[in-house]
Amino acid sequence: MQRRIFIKNTVFGCLAAGFSSYMSKGKTHILTLSFDDGFKKSFYKIAEIFNEYDLKACLNVIAMGHEPGFVNDKFIPQDLLGDFDDWNKLKEMGHELMPHAWDHKNLTEIPLEEAKLKIDQCLDYFEKNLEGYKPSEAVYNFAYNASTPELDAYALQRVRAVRTGGWLVLNDTMVNLLPISRKPLTLGCWGHGPDFCDTYTEETINTFLAGSGGWLILNLHGLDDEGWGPVSTKYLDGLLKRLVKINHVDVLPAGIVLQQKAE
Q1: Which residues are within 8 A (CB) of 93 and not within 5 positions of it... i.e. 6 or more apart?
Q2: Mean pLDDT of 111-140
Q3: Pick from 207, 240, 208, 210: which is nearest to 223 by CA?
Q4: CATH for 25-260?
Q5: Which residues contact 202 (CB under 8 A, 6 or more apart)?
Q6: Count of alpha carbons within 13 angstroms of residue 255, beta-carbon side
Q7: pLDDT, tens digit (0-9, with 9 covering 90-100), for 57-66
Q8: CB atoms within 10 A of CB 18
Q9: CA 197 → CA 23, 40, 194, 225, 236, distances in Å?
Q10: Which pLDDT tens digit goes with each residue over 15-42?
Q11: Which residues pair with 59 in a beta bridge?
Q12: Contact at 8 Å (CB) between 18 and 263?
């Protein structure tokens, strides 16, 4: 694999009609790096790296991860997680903070009514504790990227979009199609773990940028030694440094894509 193949200026085909205002700017590929869980050290470092390139990070946090009663996971030890003081600081810096479950349970493995309650607990907590939180602009990011049509529909009564496993909603493609509907919608994403995913991320983005366009959401977690399938700080910095030089690419948080790119 040629690691820098995607810095070449290749001319890509146009996307779907009705997206002319965006296409006129020459942007054919939208990339969202969607970081989950809420690792305090990693999320501040991610924000710092994104700031360096005048970008906004897409950060998704477990609502009660800092509260007593959170059950430690092998990849999500509570002592590495931040709290809503941290999330409000990062939001004030211009980064995107979105809900990533109440307690990180796989909602497809528990009774439906219990799963709905956990969605409500998560969204209620965000409304009370995240400054400037707007349900109409929110993306609910399912833990483990695991959902069902019933869970998607329930969450979409309260948020703009849900993010789940791409294999559940995108069939044979890894790309969410453009233009984007103004209706509540289900977004598909992709990820890799539990080991380092620098190579996976590089190869996936290369493949995406060699295609005709669309919106790729990659689900990442922490940096270096934090989280399931982490990326290295050095790799993330180098990746963004290269991506911002590509005229037809936008690196944007999911919520901002939904605000700016709807039909």
Answers
A1: 47, 51
A2: 97
A3: 240
A4: 3.20.20.370
A5: 1, 3, 235, 239
A6: 23
A7: 999 999 999 9
A8: 12
A9: 31, 20, 8, 12, 11
A10: 332 333 344 367 899 999 999 999 999 9
A11: 35, 97
A12: yes
Is the CB of residue 259 less than 8 Å from the CB of residue 225? no
At 213, the amino acid letter reads G
Spatial distance between the Cα atoms of 89 and 92, rounded to a whole number of angstroms:
5
Distance CA 5, CA 8 (A): 6
List the single range of 20-29, 73-82, 93-102, 211-220 with lowest mean pLDDT: 20-29
Tokens of 207: 């493949």
Q: What share of the chain is helix, strand, coil (3-state, %, to 5)?
A: 40, 20, 45
Q: Which two tokens stand for residue 210?
A: 């060699």
| Cα-Cα-Cα-Cα dihedral sign, residues 145, 202, 1, 194 | negative
Average pLDDT score, the chain: 89
Domain ranges of the chain: 25-260
Q: 198 and 33 in contact (C-beta within 8 Å)?
A: no
pLDDT band for 12, please (50, 70, 90 cuts). Answer: very low
pLDDT of residue 171: 80
Residue 6: is its pLDDT beyond 70?
no
Q: Torsion-angle region of residue 116: left (phi > 0), alpha (psi -120 to 50) or beta?
A: alpha
181-198 pLDDT per residue, tens: 888 999 999 999 999 999
Residues whose CB is less than 8 angstroms from the CB of residue 73 and which lie 6 or more positions away in sequence, other chains included: 104
- Give the pLDDT confidence score for residue 27 in this predicted structure: 87
